[in-house]
Amino acid sequence: MNIVNIDTWYAVQTQVNAEAKAARNLVRQGFEIYLPRYLKRRSHARKVEKVAAPLFPRYLFVRIDLGTQRWRSVQSTFGVSRLVCNGPDPAPVSQEVLSTLKSREDESGYIKLDQLPKLALGQKVRVLAGVFAENLGLFDGLADRDRVAILLDLLGRKVRVSIEADMVVAA
């Protein structure tokens, strides 16, 4: 086994929806973890809210010094499915990957995602959710900071609708 320096990070696959549980248990064992999260838009019962969600569902990163820490204990930690390995040894994650993720965090520690879709005027789009879900339309520009305008064919005519930017994708 090759011993790697102390600044090496590794990927851990967690059980379904158990990222926070695995993170808590790994920290209790003395490991440093990094769980990149972003603010996800969630709609429920006519209410829209932003909730923290893992950027990589079922994965987090753990810093391990293979020379001094008992890294095999990660495998049996509550909430963890497995430590991602390359053969018998843990597979290191590039420091550049983690640096890039951390550089995209806002002041609250959440990863900032590109909100506005990269669409051209007149491009075909599909609505992902809401009352117009699965409808096709044409991109008609930006309505404001978080919304886009699209033209939908409703009742035989084109209707301009303003909709959340993350609810529209290119068709």
UniProtKB/TrEMBL annotation:
Official protein name in the record: Transcriptional regulator
A cellular component term, taken from the record's GO annotations: cytosol
Taxonomy of the source species: Bacteria, Pseudomonadati, Pseudomonadota, Alphaproteobacteria, Hyphomicrobiales
PANTHER family: RHO-INTERACTING TRANSCRIPTION TERMINATION FACTOR NUSG, TRANSCRIPTION ANTITERMINATION PROTEIN RFAH
Top-rank lineage group of the source organism: Bacteria
SUPFAM superfamilies: N-utilization substance G protein NusG, N-terminal domain (SSF82679)
SMART domains in the record: NGN (SM00738)
Gene Ontology BP, a term: transcription antitermination
Name of one Pfam family that matches: NusG
InterPro entries: NGN-like_dom, NGN_dom_sf, NusG-like
Keyword Transcription regulation applies: yes
Keywords: Transcription, Transcription antitermination, Transcription regulation
Residue span(s) of domain NusG-like N-terminal: 6-105
